[in-house]
Amino acid sequence: MKKYDVFVIGSGMAGMTIANKCASKGLSVGITDELPYGGTCALRGCDPKKVIIGATEVRDFAKRLQGKGIDTIPDINWKDIMAFKQTFVDEMPRKIEKGYMKNGIDTFHSSATFINENTLRIGNETIQADKVVIASGSKPKVLDFEGGQLAKTSTDFLNLKELPQSLLFIGGGYIAFEFAHIAARSGAEVTIVHRGKRPLENFDKDIVKHLVDATRNLGVKLVLETEVSKIERKDGNYITTGISNGKETNFKSAAVFNSAGRPPAIFDLELKKAGISFSKKGIEVNENLQSISNANIYAAGDAADSRGLPLTPVAVLEGHVVASNIIKGNEKKVSYPPMPSVVFTLPTMATVGLLEDEAKEKGYDINVNFEKVDNWFNARRLNVDEYAYKTIIDKNNNTILGAHLIGPHCEETINLFAMAIKTKMTISDLRTMIFSYPTMASDLTYML
């Protein structure tokens, strides 16, 4: 039996941070992942997705400026996109494992299950550790209706050798919208089927309306208040059945993708054998990110039921907190700064801080500034139809509580709002800033 000071389950950004930091302080460390090292973001999520989006951004920009200096809209070569994307993905696992070896970390490539409070089965080996960290990330939700297994995953989409002529996405979250925009701009017919009254429920409802309009104008068929009940294969295609108000509707497509959500990847770890409390949101942890029921266990990233959003920078932050507490003995409590979140569609949608309803529920006396500003210079020079903002201002101290944007490069502008919220800059402070012009950031002062 091998014994370690620390053993980490999962080699995404949280697990990688913890393993390397603990090893740098002289602790014996082992790590395992049943998938290639790198985690969802680097290999199966945000990074490869953003590479692919780059080509669609070029096409979108050219289309907007057609007749205004651009004569030809470029075609998208899917095979070339995939080949370019793969250059980033292929280098990551080897690079990460080389780093582990350099730091003296033992590496494993098998699934993990608990035997007892601090003992694990890793493939055919038994591992014991003083501290075990669960940083196993998330994985696609299981579709438990008839034919649910026929739906492909987001990973499958990012590895498509050829783009199907028609695609259907189950669920109306950010994955569905991002991939729908990619596929539609690449020439496919796209349908999104969502069971709720509105998609992207965690974002501002008024800003989401603008994205819904942009998505439908792109040619994507968005079907709401419809629960998918069955998928079947027929004549080389997929027939997806949805139910709305008791009425069945069939949707035909060449491929179906599961974008119904990503629960934590913890439910195959035999957690009960280790006395680890968990919920459907992840391992139940205290403010030190330590298990509330087993002091030997810590959790970080998507595997933890914490207040952190399921975002890569948050996983890194939590990883540093866990490593510090293992090394120094629970001296550090997790504290979350404003966490900006982005939907990388075109137009891009972004949010940080409180939603309007949340601010009201918390009892703040607020001013709400909400406006569509497609007549502003930055919108006109880029020839965009969807450019809007909503800012939530605390009347009592004249600071920003929340910001919600849609439009070009708002994935960058939202970071300025996040910084302003964290540092409690007043509206006066921001209005007296001088921003380079004409840039998207220079519009910020007019949104207050």
Structural class of the secondary structure composition? alpha/beta
Shape from CA axes? globular
Average pLDDT: 97
Largest sheet geometry: 7 strands, mixed
Distance between the termini: 61 Å
Low-confidence stretches: none
Work out the number of β strands.
22
| Number of helical elements | 12
C-alpha Rg (nearest Å): 23 Å
Measured as a percent range, the helix fraction is 25-40%
Structural notes for this entry:
This protein is of the alpha/beta class. The protein is 31% helix and 26% strand. The protein is built from twelve helices and 22 strands. A hairpin with a 2-residue loop joins strand 10 and strand 11. Helix 3 packs antiparallel against helix 4 and helix 3 crosses helix 6.
Topology:
Elements: E1 2-9, H1 13-24, E2 29-32, H2 39-44, H3 46-64, H4 78-102, E3 106-108, E4 112-116, E5 119-122, E6 125-134, H5 154-158, E7 166-170, H6 174-185, E8 189-193, H7 205-217, E9 221-223, E10 227-234, E11 237-244, E12 247-253, E13 255-258, E14 278-279, E15 282-284, E16 297-299, E17 304-305, H8 312-328, E18 341-343, E19 348-353, H9 356-361, E20 366-372, H10 377-382, E21 388-394, E22 399-407, H11 410-423, H12 427-431
Parallel strand pairs: 1-2, 1-6, 2-3, 6-16, 7-8, 7-13, 8-9, 15-17
Antiparallel strand pairs: 4-5, 5-6, 10-11, 11-12, 14-15, 18-19, 19-22, 20-21, 21-22
Helix pairs in contact: 1-8, 3-4, 3-6
